[in-house]
Write a structure and sequence with these properties.
Length: 361
């Protein structure tokens, strides 16, 4: 997750949320039976739980599952010594993680299958989330100047969540909520294998690993020859539209629990995600993000645009715009932005009937 202290994306969210969103708090009235059942399924306290009950939950899940954040106990201890008030910060990010998981599983329960719920339940625990001292975090994950703003990440392979230490606890709470949303939307890893032949008739063993978080898809292809020679290639799709959707759902989750975000991230991408959801409908968007049904979202964009390449063009242009943002050009390439806006604007008017076909599909 990268921070952006410019425009306020949360203002865009606020415009489409009900007026009482800011007033809702952790000590809200008891939830309905359906929400209580979903909370029970994940062992997360219902909304009416007290702060003490949540503290007890955090204590129970400590070290439930071991994530390899550190090579040895000494490295782990050194990290904690370099972080001022580590225990308080750790409890804050753990609480934000659990609340994001609880509230999202309740609100979007129709889009999670049982396998996803069991995965989240099995992985829950403070061992999943770690705060890294800033010098180490920057050296390991944000060495490039453009990446320096990164405040946290969720590793696609093992699912651990890494938060960058800073003086402002609100920043870490926001970041852990964002990365937890990535974790909630992660789909099961898929691996396919086959034996084939290369151009020179050499036998090859080919394996394909497919990862998906939200609508972000990654495929890694590994080709191994009989003599052990290996070639690896990787490609990805929909990365920065996915970041916009992730932050969109994160802001809404924080507002729902009475915690207005303190900084902005992926501001323009959030605006585009909001526009897209308005065009295709909340059901199609949530089904793609939480349920992994990207094909339905792709069909909606192409159908409502009247162009078979609209979905791929949309994501290609969003990715290109994101890469054009630099410290000297914080607004990014205006021509590319106009191209993205045009694709989204074209999904209206006479194409409204296409949305009905999508809903039927």
């Amino acid at each position: 997750m990268s921070s952006d202290f410019g425009k306020t994306a949360k203002d865009s969210i606020s415009n489409v949320e009900s007026a009482d969103a800011h007033a809702r708090s952790f000590d809200a009235p008891p939830v309905t039976d359906v929400r209580e059942q979903r909370s029970a399924a994940t062992d997360i306290p219902a909304e009416s739980a007290t702060q003490e009950a949540l503290k007890e939950k955090l204590d129970r899940v400590l070290d439930e599952k071991e994530y390899v954040h550190w090579e040895n106990p000494e490295a782990k201890a050194r990290n904690r010594e370099m972080i001022c008030d580590y225990d308080a910060k750790k409890r804050a990010v753990d609480k934000a993680t659990l609340m994001t998981q609880r509230d999202t599983l309740v609100k979007y329960s129709d889009y999670f299958d049982q396998a996803a719920i069991e995965r989240i339940r099995a992985e829950i625990g403070s061992g999943k989330v770690e705060i890294y001292n800033e010098p180490y975090f920057v050296e390991k994950w944000a060495p490039a100047e453009k990446e320096y703003r990164i405040t946290g990440l969720r590793e696609m392979q093992d699912g651990k969540i890494c938060i960058r230490d800073c003086e402002n606890a609100d920043t870490m709470i926001h970041t852990s909520s964002h990365e937890s949303m990535h974790d909630l939307s992660f789909q099961a890893k898929k691996t396919e294998s086959e034996h084939t032949y290369g151009a020179d008739k050499t036998p090859l063993a080919v394996s394909r690993e497919k990862l998906q978080s939200g609508i972000h898809q990654i495929e890694t292809v590994r080709c191994t020859a009989a003599d052990g020679a290996e070639a690896v290639s990787s490609k990805e799709w929909n990365r920065y539209l996915n970041e916009g959707a992730t932050e969109m759902y994160t802001i809404e989750a924080m507002l729902d629990r009475g915690e207005p975000p303190r900084f902005d991230s992926y501001t323009q991408e959030v605006c585009w995600a909001l526009q897209l959801r308005e065009k295709v409908g909340a059901d199609t968007m949530a089904g793609a993000y939480f349920g992994g049904d990207v094909s339905r979202l792709e069909y909606a964009v192409n159908s409502m645009s009247g162009a078979e390449s609209a979905w791929s063009d949309l994501n290609d242009r969003i990715n290109a715009w994101h890469k054009s943002v630099t410290p000297l050009c914080p607004e990014g390439d205006r021509t590319i932005k106009a191209e993205v806006d045009a694709i989204l604007d074209n999904m209206s008017g006479n194409n409204a009937r296409s949305r009905k076909r999508v809903l039927k599909k």
